[in-house]
Specification:
Elements lengths: L1 E2 L8 E2 H10 L1 H14 L1 H13 L5 H8 L3 H11 L10 H23 L1
Antiparallel strand pairs: 1-2
Helix pairs in contact: 1-2, 2-3, 3-4, 4-5, 4-6
Length: 113
Amino acid sequence: MTVSTHASQHPWTTQELIELVQRRPEWVGDVINHAMTQDANARWAWVVDRYLDQQISLSKAAELLGVHMLELRERFLDLGIPLRIGAADRADAKAEVEAARRWAASANSETTT
């Protein structure tokens, strides 16, 4: 597997990326954060992969993508991505409540301005 980059013509192999993680782990977070903020397709792929691997909930996926949960739910249905409805555990339920509170707060601030 190779990963091509826009900044360079050098195709990174999986082994080279693994070595980078081993040699310069402090760079990895910055590189991923940059990719997630600059490349909407990379962000979408990363979030959907985490959702499909059951690492995050639908609410958290929507929050990370900056969309409402119902909008993301509809998009997942259109794309045939299976939905997991409801919290898997107490921590997941708390995360969903917090995501809903943040969404409600941002919606309220938009209507008052």
